[in-house]
Design brief:
Length: 651
């Protein structure tokens, strides 16, 4: 049953057309992921569907009685609002339904007319269903559950006194409490830590209403949606059934059928798509590297567009042996201890993902490393050749009143004629450089404040990468970026010749980019884990499982069951030969997987069987040998990673 139908929607900002003739239908219980490049109109379309903004033309029709809740990127609250008052607003429909049920229950008891009594009982049953749909009879229980899980305390505090991250959490709780028929979410994972993102994904998955979701979190799209709607460069939409992965597959097939962008790797990509389509059983194998390679190739191929933002980075100067170190770092704010005894060493080529709950000290740690804060104890050591470029999550360095051209450095005092940027040994005109970043001349004259959040982030990253730094410190760089630009940013960081410190809640991004994870655990501690985010979660779960029996034994012995405090372990627990073996393990696995895929492709080609039985036997032997080698390498990889993590330093 149709909940919402938008027809012939048109929207423009000045001379810039955003949406043109867009038509979209949302069915009851449907889960839709809305994708498109930054500035394509995703947020504008959500506001139109929520009837917060009127389009220049076209109309939005809702089924009678349909309730809609909209969560914007930056939520707004009325003056004087408190956490409790906002939750009461969200629960108003539920309270009304409960009160109506109570009044009708009293009336039924005194009704003597059998026909009227039957009608009243039917209405009573409908009201009971509505109460269940809106969250149940205990109006305070769900609010407490949501706020506790979201880490929101002090219900009586004015919302205006809360940080941006906490305000976002209150807005999420308010949206979830309303139990609408249609929930519109614009980047709901911004400002949330990775564990809370995991929880929100499960919470949304368990709800029955329809959902339209704008997010850069690809795991969110993969796990939650059953249809992808892509805003086209012409301002319309194309609909693709299935989740994010299915969308990539269908895009690839459609482009191949249309004969677009032929490439020597087309056959290989097609084989990877076919392999992924074998389903769940394939993903139970240890072919993780192959899955990641297939997704990367499909992302590169599936998002074929006339133009993609060409982010470039200035070659980093050579680093000295010491890059950036923290020894015994401690910091408190009043009575609140944020960091205590943190040890950390950043080496050349490290890409360290920093994770932890909001307020655990991630940004404080970065500011201490950068010298913006003084530690209460401990010290920070910076190498003589270390040059840091810092991306702050608030984007405070961008003046909303300056034009895009000026914000990128154009028109600086003392500059005459055309401004240039230097990329390596090349000088490129700033206007041409901005055009390559999808800021054409008309947009270069726009004020920064008129850009979308993703466009502002892209501008800041572009400026940052030209600073000639060899250490990139990035605090939430993925917020608001479209999926295409995220793919470009991932490749740029993977190819970067310096070191990277990265704070992000984007699990997919960390899985692709991070070489180790620094986890802040909310009690002043920081623990370093080898590998990406998935490896970190696995090691953390193993550590928790192993500590259980130790706590039981300590309790039985009458000893306090306190786990030993752990600090960041220094590198070098592996021998030199073992570390070299580990460093080359991923490349070796890719070689083995490539051998296996080539043999599989040949065996799937009917022409192979016309070459004779010896050829088939040889290919099967090669495929089995390559598969066995890949399995051996995976086992050895896991063994080395666990060995490297097995001996953390203790206080």
């Amino acid at each position: 049953m149709t909940l919402l139908h938008a027809s012939n929607i048109g929207l423009a900002f000045g001379s810039r057309t955003i949406l043109d003739g867009l038509t979209l239908t949302i069915e009851e219980g449907e889960r839709v992921g809305l994708v498109g490049v930054n500035g394509s109109g995703k947020s504008s379309l959500l506001r139109i569907l929520a009837r917060v903004t009127e389009p220049d033309r076209g109309e939005v029709q809702l089924r009678r009685g349909t309730s809609v809740t909209y969560l914007p990127q930056e939520p707004e609250f009325p003056a004087g609002a408190t956490v409790a008052s906002e939750l009461e607003v969200a629960r108003a429909p539920l309270r009304e339904a409960i009160d109506s049920h109570a009044r009708l229950s009293g009336a039924v008891a005194s009704e003597a007319d059998p026909e009227r009594r039957d009608r009243m009982l039917a209405e009573l049953a409908a009201l009971a269903d509505r109460v269940d749909h809106l969250g149940g009879w205990d109006t305070a229980h769900e609010a407490r559950r949501l706020l506790d899980r979201l880490g929101v305390r002090d219900w009586d505090r004015p919302v205006a006194d809360l940080s941006g991250g906490v305000r976002k959490r209150v807005a999420i709780a308010r949206a979830l409490l309303s139990h609408p028929d249609l929930l519109l979410l614009d980047e709901p994972t911004n400002h949330l830590d990775a564990d809370t993102v995991d929880w929100l994904e499960d919470e949304l998955d368990g709800r029955s209403g329809a959902l339209v979701l704008v997010t850069h979190d690809r795991y969110f799209l993969d796990d939650l949606v059953d249809r992808i709607v892509e805003i086209t460069p012409q301002g319309g939409v194309t609909s693709w059934p299935g989740n994010y992965e299915a969308y990539l597959e269908q895009k690839l097939v459609a482009e191949e059928e249309a004969g677009l962008e032929q490439h020597k790797r087309d056959r290989w990509i097609s084989q990877e798509v076919a392999w992924l389509r074998r389903g769940v059983e394939a993903r139970r194998t240890k072919s993780k590297a192959r899955i990641q390679r297939a997704r990367a190739l499909m992302a590169e191929k599936g998002f074929v567009r006339p133009r993609v933002a060409e982010l470039q980075v200035a070659p980093p100067p050579r680093l000295s042996q010491v890059v950036l170190e923290a020894h015994g770092l401690a910091k408190s704010f009043g009575e609140r201890k944020v960091l205590e005894g943190v040890e950390f060493i950043l080496q050349r080529g490290d890409r360290v993902g920093i994770v932890g709950p909001n307020g655990a000290g991630k940004t404080t740690f970065l500011r201490l490393l950068l010298g913006e804060l003084e530690p209460d104890a401990g010290k920070v050591v910076s190498g003589v050749r270390t040059r840091v470029a810092y991306h702050d999550q608030q984007r405070a360095s961008l003046d909303p009143e300056r034009t895009v051209y000026e914000a990128a450095g154009g028109g600086a005092p003392g500059m005459a004629g055309e401004d240039f940027v230097t990329i390596g040994e090349r000088r490129v005109g700033l206007r041409d450089y901005l055009d390559d970043l999808l800021f054409p001349p008309t947009m270069q004259r726009m004020k920064v404040g008129m850009l979308s959040g993703g466009e502002r982030n892209r501008l800041l990253l572009a400026r940052l990468f030209l600073e000639g730094a060899n250490v990139l410190v990035l605090d939430e760089p993925t917020n608001d970026l479209d999926l295409v630009t995220l793919n470009v940013l991932e490749r740029l960081l993977l190819d970067f010749g310096g070191s990277v410190l990265l704070v992000t809640h984007d699990r997919y991004f960390l899985d692709k980019v991070a070489t180790s994870i620094l986890a802040f655990e909310g009690d002043g501690r920081a623990v370093r884990y080898p590998g990406n985010y998935e490896t970190y979660r696995t090691l953390k779960e193993q550590s928790a499982a192993a500590s259980g029996p130790a706590r039981v034994a300590a309790a039985e012995a009458g000893k306090p069951s306190v786990a030993p405090a752990v600090r960041v372990r220094k590198p070098g627990k592996l021998s030199f030969q073992e570390q070299r073996e580990l460093d080359g393990m991923e490349a070796a696995i890719l070689v083995a997987e490539s051998r296996k895929s080539v043999a599989e492709a040949a065996l799937s080609d009917p022409a192979t069987y016309r070459e004779g039985g010896e050829r088939v036997v040889a290919l099967r032997a090669e495929m089995e040998a390559a598969a066995a080698e890949a399995e051996r390498l995976y086992a050895r990889w896991q063994e080395l990673e666990l060995l490297g993590a097995a001996a953390p330093a203790t206080k």
